Amino acid sequence: MSPSEEVNEAEGRGPARCGMPNCKVPSDLLRHDPLTDTYWCRGHDPDPTVAAQRKADQERGGMSTARRFKRGLDASELGELATPADAERWSRLVAVAVASGVLTPAQGNTTLRAVSEFVKSRDLRVREDRLSALESELQRLRTMRRVQ
């Protein structure tokens, strides 16, 4: 039991609640304001010093978010992705961007996964084309053999 709950229960008032209606913050996280005899959570406390600290924390949180979500690379920086050489160039650019902090590791992994899927699909297309050419050649040879 928190100190605020103990005091309130000793006075017959039940557990402390934030002065803001419907606030569900546990009583052990509330601050008692002796002037108004009200308990406040950190998010609703009207005290100017608490409000200033809350604002500073929010600003720091915004900076942290900005560090996590980076702009990334422009399409013009990456160039076209049409050949294996392009895929290799993309991979190098992404590796350098992650290492230098331009991309987050998550952004780098996502981009490299897309490059990998491109390489796989291109390889599959090349294999299908080769197989189709071999089947055509086999059919031509069978036809020539029957004619003779």
User: What string, H for helix and E for strand, traces the elements in order?
Assistant: HEEHHHH
Class inferred from helices and paired strands: mainly alpha
How much of the polypeptide forms β-strand, as a percent range?
under 5%
**Count of discrete structural domains:** 2
State the distance separating the first and last CA atoms: 100 Å
Helix content: 55-70%
Radius of gyration: 33 Å
SS field, number of helical segments: 5
Strand order of the largest sheet: 1-2
DSSP summary, beta strand count: 2
Main β-sheet: number of strands, strand sense, barrel status? Answer: 2 strands, antiparallel
The stretches of 5 or more residues where confidence is low (pLDDT under 50) are: 4-12
How much is the average pLDDT? 83
The best one-word shape is elongated
